[in-house]
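[audit] Reproducing an earlier prediction to check determinism. Same input, same settings, fresh worker. If the tokens differ from the archived copy the diff job will pick it up downstream; this log only records the rerun itself.
[audit] input (408 residues):
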Amino acid sequence: PEFVKSCFAREGHPVMVSEISTCSRKSLDLKFGMYPWVIGIVAVFYGLPVLQLVWNYQTVLNVQGNQDLCYYNFRCIHGYGSLSAFNNVFSNVGYVLLGILFCLLTLRQDHVYRSRLAKDPTLATKRGLPQSYGLFYALGLSVAMEGIMSGCYHVCPTGLNFQFDTSFMYIIACVSLLRLYQNRHPDIIADAHTAVAVIALIIFLVVVGVLGNGVVFWSLFFIIYIVGGTMLNVHLYFYSWASIKRSWRNVRRTGRVRVQYPRRFVLLVLSTLLNLSLAIYGISLQEKNFASYVLYVLMANLFAYLAYYIILKLCAGESFRPLTLIFVGAMATFSVPALYFYFSRTTSWQDSPAKSRQLNEDCVLFDFYGSHDIWHFLSAFGLFFYSLVLLTIDDLLEKTPRNQIISW
């Protein structure tokens, strides 16, 4: 809309990517190249105990025959070997295969960029966005691990085990946010250790929320949420502590508060309103399924920022490759029906085993896969095409002078 365009046009001197991308390509590769390694280490040390735990659940179920131990869809359950719900576990294979495929496509993109860089060194310093593919490798690895962890959860679905199904979805959301932000702020983004420490804090809060979900917990979470969100918004607006002190001195000297960066201010306001609404919603209802609530918060922020990013690209006169638009269409084609099957509940570990069985439904595909299995298949492709959107969203800027690319 014209109003949006004019609003962003009022900024006297927009910050260009060239002004905040002073690090060399080698230093960026070292910084972002750590992400897949750190995520891989987390995957090993987090995944192996989970695998042992759920396998112990399955062993106890096989020995004791207690059908109330795990919340299966008993009207669509097919065993194989020691697994009681082989179909629910196997349906996660799409995440693993497509995550690996995305890593291979990223490797190809990385190789093509290095070849172009060898022919035209100005790509590294003066043209296009600074490129480093470490976060994309981390994203592909996280998608593959989501399939493994979801498979572990479906070995024996329970309320306590559900956090394993969502852990790498948190990582996917955080890595995606970091990747989008990296496009225009390559020198400012957090290193792998800081990012993983924040993700670890999120998972810790989820574990506490699963074990003790009450008024005291929600009150503390509300405070942490608001304070943490405010600190993050301040960082996104000012970039550095020196900038905060400089702005404060200007306010004291002039007695006026001036919006110095309108684009960032719009992001700050929208982010504050969104997260304040989510925080109030959470503390009002005190959702028992805290793991899902945190996932919804992260996904809401991710897609809000993605929409903001796309709007600003259009306002800046930037366009998309036709292939990127095809990926967007494919993502929507798979994601919309996937959400339908996701909300078609056939079990509920929030209720008693007897009530959960009342929700059970017959298989809907090949007399083997249930509606939740269809969610696995469709959402895997949705995540894959979403990842490709991130990979190609700024491809057309490769030949644009860096001092003409706006940072937001």
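[audit] rerun output stored. Observation attached for the diff report: The radius of gyration is 23 Å.
[audit] end
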